[in-house]
Design a protein that fits this description.
globular; TIM Barrel; two-stranded antiparallel sheet; Glyco_hydro_14; single chain
């Protein structure tokens, strides 16, 4: 192990930094010390101010026995630089945040395809900066396609364990998102993280494991919920595979659960959301641009068998012969379709109600199964389980809400489709996550769209069930208009006296976050969202640990990224 060199001289901040430093108390982040080494990649080491008797450096916990035997970090994790070591024990677990705490979602490829932490030096500097800014914690996706990539039941948590250890060192909490879906639209759309190869092989052998629309287009973002309990994954059902994944996670992260890892969000569909892939996820991610009606995803043989059985049960066998006609999801105006139109549309007929109740009921059953499994696995561990609902808003001011119907939310002018979902979450004491907090109706170019109306309805349903709510932004941006809208939307839920808790996930961390003007906006936003007393206490706690001025954040992170 290389000897610890003397700390390099602190860089001179920009000229404007000297003016601000004496006028305002700034968030602080750790001073990084370079370690001398003969290798080309320098290793960063962090030192706390300690007594004369220093303890041995703390390191990331070793992988669990079920992890991959390879402990080296390859793939995209190889170019990340050195690790961060401590000359004193890590800080105690962070205190429970008050106010409306802010979390930051890490890059999707924080752990690369090879299972190692990508860009370690940049990640360490970024976490230190977030901690100094008063952020409560980070959210990180743990990808099925990364952890169980080597084969069924072979789990490699090493990279994610290292991330958890890094978060603990900086006093940050962790929200773990168990991601059973693919990331990206394909290899051309980085970061690209598909389902495990052995799962894709089974889907190639049996195409009906994929969601299918009436044009027989297959979607491999997530396994069709029609085969939730069928042993189609080398002898295991998808639910068994998800359950085994959760149990392995619980065992591997045992020392972190409840103190550092305080919440586990269960991926329930494409994009990690409880919905059908009625529109491609990459289309949904372009908030405000999409206005497709979407396609019903009920044409694989497993969904068709379920629909047929339900129709026979009520003595209407003809209703089980495929999905509804006259939908034409490629259109943007529901009035041009016979199913979704307001006057005489099939959605409000006995057949339409039968089909939509079955379609949305299957999605609700899928969510209930996952909540039931998660509740059993994490009971007594000290973590809160959570699920996410998509904010599909572009036909909210229509009678039939077609884009919500095709996504599985039976929400119309005549029916509240979100209350059954929040009631299901409430049965398992699960938190609800939803987006749209940064979107305003006046920014929409579609008069039928209402992100604010969609969000208000979700909030009301969550409050009726006394659910903890995690808000998210739909677009990664840091302009004042967007951040102020988040604050206004958040106060609708967190400002009451019902006792419901609220927090916000900023999606997601990237290099532009640490640009000078963006960073100033972000730290101001965190102070506005969080309780002032808690924020100041965190600053005082970190001041004693030799944290740099926030004016140096841009320099430190940009050097680490370079």
């Amino acid at each position: 192990m290389a000897a610890i060199a003397a700390p390099p001289p602190q860089p001179h901040p920009p000229a404007s930094a000297h003016h601000h430093h004496h006028h305002r108390r700034r968030a602080r982040l750790p001073r990084l010390a370079a370690a001398s080494s003969s290798s080309s990649s320098s290793r960063f080491r962090r030192r706390f101010s300690s007594s004369s008797s220093s303890s041995s450096p703390s390191s990331a916990p070793s992988p669990s026995p079920s992890s991959s035997s390879s402990s080296s970090y390859g793939g995209s994790g190889g170019g990340g630089g050195g690790e961060i070591h401590y000359a004193s024990p890590p800080p105690p677990p962070p205190a429970a945040p008050t106010g409306a705490p802010v979390y930051v979602t890490l890059p999707a490829d924080a752990v690369g395809p090879g299972g190692g932490v990508a860009r370690r030096r940049a990640m360490a500097a970024s976490l230190a900066a977030l901690a100094g800014a008063g952020v409560a914690g980070v959210a990180v996706e743990l990808w099925w396609g990364v952890v169980e990539r080597q084969g069924p039941g072979v789990y490699d948590w090493a990279g994610y364990l290292e991330l958890a250890a890094m978060a603990r060192r900086y006093g940050l909490r962790v929200r773990a998102i168990l991601a059973f879906h693919q990331c990206g639209a394909g290899p051309h759309d980085p970061p690209w993280i598909p389902l495990p190869q052995w799962v894709l092989e089974e889907m190639d052998k049996l195409p009906d494991l994929s969601y299918t629309d009436r044009y027989q287009r297959r979607n491999k973002e997530y396994i069709s919920l029609g085969c939730d309990i069928l042993p189609i994954l080398k002898g295991r059902s998808p639910m068994q595979a998800y359950s085994d994944f959760m149990r392995s996670f619980r065992d591997a992260f045992k020392e972190y659960l409840g103190a550092i890892v305080t919440e586990v969000q269960i991926g329930m569909g494409p994009g990690g959301e409880l919905r059908y892939p009625s529109c491609p996820t990459e289309t949904l991610s372009q908030a405000g641009i999409s206005s497709e009606l979407g396609e019903f995803q009920c044409y694989d043989k497993f969904m068709q068998a379920s629909l047929s059985a339900r129709a026979q049960l009520i003595g209407m066998q003809d209703w089980g012969n495929g999905g509804p006609a006259g939908t034409d999801g490629s259109r943007q105006n529901p009035e041009e379709t016979s199913f979704f139109r307001a006057d005489g549309g099939c959605w409000n007929t006995p057949y339409g109600r039968f089909f939509l109740e079955w379609y949305s009921g299957m999605l609700l059953l899928h969510g209930e199964r996952l909540c039931m499994v998660a509740d059993a696995v994490f009971s007594g561990s000290g973590v809160t389980i959570a699920g996410k609902v998509s904010g599909i808003h572009w036909h909210y001011y229509t009678c039939s809400h077609p884009s919500e119907l095709t996504a599985g939310y039976y929400n119309t002018l005549l029916r509240n489709g979100y209350l059954p979902i929040t009631q299901m979450f409430a049965r398992y004491k699960a938190a609800l996550c939803c987006s749209c907090f940064d979107l305003r109706d006046e920014e929409r170019n579609n008069s039928k769209s209402s992100p604010e109306g969609t969000l208000r309805q979700l909030m009301v349903a969550a409050k009726m069930c006394n659910l903890p709510l995690n808000g998210e932004n739909s677009v990664t941006r840091l302009d004042d208009t967007s951040l102020n809208q988040v604050i206004r939307s958040s106060r609708l839920y967190s400002g009451g006296t019902s006792g419901t808790s609220f927090s916000f996930n900023y999606v997601r961390m990237n290099k532009s976050l640490f640009e000078f003007h963006n960073w100033n906006r972000f730290t101001k936003f965190v102070r506005q969202m969080s309780d002032a007393r808690t924020f100041l206490a965190r600053l005082e706690f970190r001041r004693g640990q030799h944290y740099l001025s926030s004016m140096s954040v841009v320099w430190v992170v940009s050097r680490a990224c370079a």
